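User: I'm curious whether this sequence folds into something compact or stays loose and floppy. Could you predict its structure so I can see for myself?
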Amino acid sequence: MSKPPGELPIYRVLTGPDDAAFCRRVSEALALGYVLYGSPAVTFDGEHVIVAQAIVWPES
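Assistant: Here's the prediction. I'll summarize afterward.
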């Protein structure tokens, strides 16, 4: 597959609270064929740990 499914972009940044739902979103993207791009970024908003992870389509 030369392009991501469903007209998804080739570069995406997934963000959200560091919880099971965020981990599932990253896992689902990896299962579609995306690969991690760089290390995750982590911050604390005073209440929750927030994570950002870039992913790319491997043929891009």
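Summary: Helices lie at 20-32. The chain has one helix and three strands.
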